Amino acid sequence: MLNNVRVVLSHTTHPGNIGAAARAMKTMGLHHLYLINPRHFPDPQASAMAAGADDVLQSAVVCGSIDEALEGVVLTVGMTARQRDISNEVMSPREAMPQVVQQATVQPVALLFGTEMSGLTNEEVSRSQMLVNIPANPEFSSLNLAAAVQVISYELSVAAESYQPVTQLAQPAAHQQVEGFMSHLEKTLHEIGFFTTQNPARMMQRLRRLYARARLEADEINILRGILSVTTEYNARLKARYRQDRDV
Question: E-assigned strands of the chain?
Fold first, then answer.
């Protein structure tokens, strides 16, 4: 099941943290490392800090965007160290990792880590279906990136050892299917004039949270996109009828 888990590091600034994260991953049986626009990679410091996990570094996938890094995954777990103005439930690693393991038995999942200084961006949070916070001293909660990867990897390993198979597991839609639906939804809402009294960016952020909690399946996305297509067609007919009546 761990072969279905990828660790995604976004915009890492120090190459040593990449190497140390690779070492942390390998000690817990994780091998799939994805890097979103790292400042320095490959780099000798990364290799030095990997301390034997060179195979993880050599097979690391460097991506130009978060959507590229998350392609194919059905569950993205974002790591957050701070309180946010969001409605998503923030879980501890011990609460979240059993769910991650359960999904990873059948489909790819991603553990998403933000930059060393500021963590995940709002866009990256919006791509996550689950948020995890590592409990720490509230007076000094700053945790090194590689240390955070180590804690999460360990909790994932513990959860994997005690995993009990489930007879029937939901099949969430892949990341690119969800993103296709969200783009379709935003386009449709613009076409029907929904955003005339709404802030589009703010509303889409809230809708992303809603659908992230729902964990949409592929068939459900097809149903919703069918509804959007019919809505667009109906709206176009109404506009055409209005123009005809106005010309008469």
Answer: 5-10, 32-36, 61-63, 75-79, 90-91, 109-113, 130-132
What distance in Å separates the CA atoms of residue 50 and residue 20, rounded to the nearest whole number?
5
Q: Is the pLDDT of residue 86 over 80?
A: no
Please give the C-alpha separations between residue 213 and each of 10, 88, 89, 216, in angstroms, as whole numbers. 23, 7, 9, 8
Q: Which of 15, 9, 16, 17 is nearest to 146 (CA)?
A: 17
Q: Helix and strand tally (H, E) in the chain?
A: 10, 7
Residue 160: how many CB atoms within 10 A of its CB? 20
Amino acid at residue number 43: D
Tokens of 49: 């800090």
Torsions phi, psi of 119, nearest 5?
75, -150
Identify residue 227 by its one-letter amino acid code.
I
3-class SS of residue 55 = helix
- Tell whether domain 175-247 is in CATH 1.10.390.10: no
How much is the average pLDDT of 61-72?
A: 97
The architecture in CATH of the region 2-161 reads 3-Layer(aba) Sandwich (3.40)
Tell me, what DSSP letter sits at residue 25? H
SS3 for 236?
Answer: helix
- Give the confidence band of 247 by pLDDT, cuts at 50, 70, 90: confident
Domain boundaries, the chain: 2-161, 175-247
Q: Which residues contact 205 (CB under 8 A, 6 or more apart)?
A: 122, 126
Q: Which residue has the tokens 């690693």?
A: 93
CA 181 to chain CA centroid, nearest Å: 16
Alpha helices (H) along the chain: 15-27, 44-50, 54-58, 66-69, 93-104, 122-126, 145-161, 175-191, 200-214, 218-247
